[in-house]
Design goal:
165 residues, 24% strand, 6-stranded mixed beta sheet, alpha+beta
Length: 165
């Protein structure tokens, strides 16, 4: 089990973080502490704190990632449905609707001095305290995905969407 998030980044009682383009709803994310014993995603890093501006940038890059991802998924859905009209599939099993996901953020400073965040997204918590305990499952389809965001460079990378069993 992870200990409580040592980062109370204005995760105070404020409901939203304001930006002219984005609002980040604090009810859908938790910042977990970086633990070298548990997090294999980042090597040679140290823990970092997230600012409100970082949270807005994470949301912006997360949305861009999904906006880049979904068109190909819609194409695959249409292609699959066309090949077999009797197939019981739903477009929701192919595309990602961010409104349905909770998020966990783990922030680090990498060996180059850049701030990076591992973003873990999920639509089912398995009755775990997701604000303190890492949600990690095998399979589960697009209900579970993660990616890395380099805040210093303003880029996302390593999107990994779970497969179906």
């Amino acid at each position: 089990n992870l200990s409580s998030c040592g980062q109370n980044i204005t995760e105070s009682k404020t409901k939203n973080f304001d930006s002219t383009l984005f609002q980040v709803d604090s009810s859908v994310f938790a910042v977990l502490p970086f633990d070298t014993a548990q997090y294999w995603e980042f090597k040679d890093c140290k823990s970092a704190k997230l600012t409100n501006a970082d949270l807005i940038e994470i949301e912006k890059l997360l949305r861009k990632c999904i906006d880049d991802y979904n068109p190909e998924q819609e194409r695959q859905y249409n292609e699959t449905k066309t090949k077999d009209t009797n197939l019981k599939i739903n477009v929701k099993d192919f595309v990602i609707d961010l409104k349905k996901y909770k998020r966990q953020y783990i922030a680090v400073i990498n060996s180059k001095g850049e701030k990076e965040v591992w973003v873990n997204c999920f639509c089912d918590t398995w009755k775990k305290n997701w604000r303190k305990e890492l949600i990690f499952v095998l399979d589960g389809g697009n209900c579970y995905f993660n990616l890395k965001i380099n805040l210093t460079k303003g880029e996302y990378y390593d999107l990994m969407v779970n497969g179906d069993a």
